[in-house]
Amino acid sequence: MILLISAAELYSQSGAQDDLFSPNNRLKFANHLYAEKDYLRAIGEYKEFLKSADNDTARFRFANSFLRIGRFDEAAQNFKILFIGSKLEEEAKLFYYQSLFFSKDFNAFQTNYDSRFNFPQKYSLTLDRLNSATYFLSKTNLPSGNVLIKPFDDSLQTKLIYYYLMMKNPPKKNSVTAALLSVAIPGAGKVYTGELTDGLIAFGATLLSGFLAVNNFQHDHNFRGWLFTGLTAFFYGGSIYGSAASAQIYNARLQFNLDSEIKLFFEERNYFLPKIDL
Amino acid sequence: MFRIRKYFVLLGIFCLQSNYAQSTVETQLAWADKLFASNQYFDAITEYKRVLFFDEQNKLITRVNFRIAECYKAGAHFYEAIKYFALVEKNSLNDSILIEAKLEIIRCNILRKTTERALQLCSEIERDERFYSKRDEINYWRGWAFMFADDWESASKIFAETPANKELKLLCNQVIDAKVSVTFATVISYILPGAGQIYSGKILSGLMSFAWNLAAGYFTVNAFVANRAFDGIVIGELVWLRFYRGNIENAKTFALEKNLEVSNKALKFLQNEYRGLKP
User: Do B141 and B222 belong to one domain?
Assistant: First the structure.
């Protein structure tokens, strides 16, 4: 009996470390961390587990942990491992595309999408939507509107068509036109870009200082005449430059608002991704 | 006889298993403690979480949660720290652990500058008769909460209540004395341009401001005296008022900057040189 207890004591001391770190226990602990959303620590545990054993769910969660913490390249690489002969092949393929999508490497996504092979039917609509989203978010190489909005529900198509048209032909203001308008009538360029108050102030200031310049010259106040002439030139030049700048600001604001609106549209709907708990 | 021996053997196996499991967890806890002691907080949290996960008897739950919270606090992850201190609070078996967790939550709130919450928790503990003996400590943390909120007057009053906090009271008073009044700086700048800047310690800026205002004022008055009303209005509006308004704004900004500098210096002293208990 004494021998038995002594052996137990000795065994517990020496084997203690090993047991908690057995592959099975590592997996249990990793799953616990994953469920707790402590992805960074879960990665460490899954990594150690996968050194000694292979398990599709563990590999999937390992990759998904990378995805959740924004390490998209590692996520994509690990999802790729599950592409062949895995029971989670379909989900892995979808999540692989998600990794590419969230890494914001839209070109890589589109290239992969175009050359996709054997993609599961179950998630093909989700992938089509993600693909459309890449064009809406990157705004480059836009295909035809029908192709882009086809994967979405009818209720959303009006909005998406609007975004598409705004992207294709944004109602931008031309900075040269704005400047030329201000050359003709000071402040007119600002009115053209929607800055009505600024335009009227520019017009009033130029007119007033011009009048004061002329008036002072007429009354032989030459110094003040030149002073207001300089001021008139300053207001006039400022109005022209300001109009051109105002057009650029208008265009930048237009672009920014559109980008934000499109981003919000997809974010609010979680990019139309299905809820997959694995 | 044989039957008795068999029972002994079974008992032995049972002891072996339970002893082994618990000892494994405790060995791991010792390792986690070692990591904690060597400031490797990320790894320490991992190992503490492992201990927590494998501690089937939940014997270590309070101790380990407390340690995890301390690790998060050390890494300035106050939200997570409070979450784990709250777990300690929930699972505490006696009042001493309970109050310790509560005070730690207050300290985290002080550090993340959620002063209102820290003060609210102080009041809650103060009302609890079980913690009557902790009133001085609660007041101590209340004072710290005020210091972190830049309310040195309130902090000084709180520290004055306990003779042991004399050093902190003196520090608060020094800060109060060193600070300047933003309202006073603004008002004297209305009366005498540049005075507010000089009061806030920016002598050169104050003198420059005074000179600009004097010159602009002279030209404005001179224009009106010479019946050049238009010139007077233009110089007065575009030049003098610009410097006059600038002087008032500057006085306010400099006073605020000076106060911030004084507060930061005091907080730096508390962080690096103060030897007493810190949040």
Answer: no
Going by C-alpha positions, the residue among B15, B29, B31, B49 that lies closest to residue A11 is B15
pLDDT at B12: 52
Best CA proximity match to B217, nearest among B240, B196, B242, B201 = B240
Nearest-neighbour CA in chain A from B2: distance (Å) = 14
% of chain B exceeding 70 in pLDDT? 92
- Residue ranges of chain A with per-residue pLDDT less than 50: 9-16
Does ipTM exceed 0.85? no
CA distance A267 to chain B (A): 26
If one counts the domains in chain B, the total is 2
User: Could you tell me which residues come within 8 angstroms of residue B2 by beta carbon, excluding any fewer than 6 positions away?
Assistant: none
A274 part of a folded domain: no
Residue A34 sits in the same domain as residue A161: yes
Residues of A in contact with B27 (CB under 8 A): 12-13, 16-17
CB pairs < 8 Å spanning A and B: 62
Model pLDDT, residue A18: 55
Task: Give the CATH number for residue A116.
Answer: 1.25.40.10
Chain B residue numbers touching A208 (CB-CB < 8 A): none
- The residue segments making up the domain with residue A252 are 175-264
The closest CB to that of A41, out of B15, B19, B46, belongs to: B46
A42 close to B54: Cβ distance less than 8 angstroms: no
- Which of B15, B54, B231 comes nearest A5 by C-beta? B15
Do B35 and B140 lie in one domain? The reply is: yes
